[in-house]
Amino acid sequence: MMSCLRPCFGRRFKRIVYFMLVFLCMVFVFMRIGTLGRGTNQKDRTTPRDLLQHREHILISSDNATTTILPAKDKSVIYIQEHIDRFTKLLITNRDICSEKQIDLIIYIQSHWINVERRRSLRETWIDNNLFTDVIIKHVFILGKPNNKPDQVKINNENLIHKDIIQGDFIESFQNITLKSIVALNWINKNCRQAKFVAKADDDVFVDVFKVVNTLLPSVQNKTRNIVCSVKENNTSPIVRDTKSKWYIPEYIFPNRTHLPRFCIGYFVLLTSDLVPELAHASQGAQYIPVDDVYLFGFLLQSLNQVGYIDIARNMTIDENFALDTFSKGKHSHLLAAHANKDDYIQKMWTEVLFAQNKDKP
Ligand SMILES: *[C@@H]1O[C@H](CO)[C@@H](O)[C@H](O)[C@H]1NC(C)=O
Ligand SMILES: *[C@@H]1O[C@H](CO)[C@@H](O)[C@H](O)[C@H]1NC(C)=O
Ligand SMILES: *[C@@H]1O[C@H](CO)[C@@H](O)[C@H](O)[C@H]1NC(C)=O
Ligand SMILES: *[C@@H]1O[C@H](CO)[C@@H](O)[C@H](O)[C@H]1NC(C)=O
Ligand SMILES: *[C@@H]1O[C@H](CO)[C@@H](O)[C@H](O)[C@H]1NC(C)=O
Ligand SMILES: *[C@@H]1O[C@H](CO)[C@@H](O)[C@H](O)[C@H]1NC(C)=O
């Protein structure tokens, strides 16, 4: 800062240097204003920050953006294909997970890198690869990256032991969650094409994998181009325009709409794998929507033809205690998946499901 204020008189070249410094100084000040203003919710002011961001937008878009005219305020979520390509480069690859010729189900879990304990719980319970002998199930965890080395080392070590982590080159945040979907999509498309089915879950979700294998998979085994999920029909879910929300969608996405087009609630989804290459293809050059299920199981999926939806809204719940109770009913449980946010609920539900499983045996 100080160097800008130092008087620079004299010869012509000195004057040029002076003007350059002043210019850089102004840019710096504008950027500071931009940084300080971030996170506040004053929507309708026009500041140098907005102008600057508009400029940045133009710069960002000059290499042929795929998006339309974008308001300056939402710069932080304007990802064009070039950014997406860069951020979804893999830091941890694990190309060999699907080395077998026949794979029935690949499950990908979107997980925050910090949730080591959740991943441990999942590996010990429903995601355990060795539960079935006649059905081959693989899993991967899809992670973003921490912003420091020691944490990255921890993730590397976790992966050395379990070899089930796929990590994209982006910092974890709500806005970046969609990058996880893209990482998963591309990874499966490249490395696990042979899987018959693909399932997605979040790391705070419990799935009755016995029910999936014994009931759900047989019921869809001859199907193609199908998705099994909790379907939210066109115009039934309000679009969240509150910048502070986890589900915030900027105004330039779905302009003039108050409610979302059809999509699937993303905490548990199962699809026939024939949709994967098409979704991966559709993602190329597609608008980035920072809410992953709206993007992948809504926006991209809607762009494909003749997809069948099988609605399992009734078989999913976010009510953990209700789920715990229901899972204990074994054969009489109608649930496939549930949120299990509280610490030991994954374990508790697992205990119920295992117990019921044995109880139901003839
Ligand atoms: C960039 O956009 C312009 C105008 O829309 C188009 O004519 C041109 O072909 C595009 N270039 C590339 C490399 O896509
Ligand atoms: C998303 O990831 C990119 C790439 O690492 C990073 O620059 C950006 O800050 C992240 N977004 C947020 C909101 O953290
Ligand atoms: C799937 O196809 C096989 C062979 O054609 C058939 O035996 C089986 O009953 C079908 N399953 C379902 C659920 O339709
Ligand atoms: C969804 O609703 C919008 C607006 O009400 C309508 O224009 C659109 O055609 C609908 N989409 C489908 C696929 O039905
Ligand atoms: C949204 O509505 C405005 C004003 O009614 C109109 O000018 C604009 O073209 C609409 N945009 C879209 C994408 O429909
Ligand atoms: C979903 O729940 C309904 C009852 O609400 C049940 O009839 C159906 O079999 C369940 N579906 C699966 C795949 O478990």
From TrEMBL:
<comment type="similarity">
    <text>Belongs to the glycosyltransferase 31 family.</text>
</comment>
<dbReference type="GO" id="GO:0000139">
    <property type="term" value="C:Golgi membrane"/>
</dbReference>
<feature type="transmembrane region" description="Helical">
    <location>
        <begin position="16"/>
        <end position="34"/>
    </location>
</feature>
<protein>
    <recommendedName>
        <fullName>Hexosyltransferase</fullName>
        <ecNumber>2.4.1.-</ecNumber>
    </recommendedName>
</protein>
<keyword id="KW-1133">Transmembrane helix</keyword>
<dbReference type="Pfam" id="PF01762">
    <property type="entry name" value="Galactosyl_T"/>
</dbReference>
<keyword id="KW-0735">Signal-anchor</keyword>
<keyword id="KW-0812">Transmembrane</keyword>
<dbReference type="GO" id="GO:0016757">
    <property type="term" value="F:glycosyltransferase activity"/>
</dbReference>
<keyword id="KW-0808">Transferase</keyword>
<keyword id="KW-0328">Glycosyltransferase</keyword>
<dbReference type="InterPro" id="IPR002659">
    <property type="entry name" value="Glyco_trans_31"/>
</dbReference>
<keyword id="KW-0325">Glycoprotein</keyword>
<keyword id="KW-0472">Membrane</keyword>
<keyword id="KW-0333">Golgi apparatus</keyword>
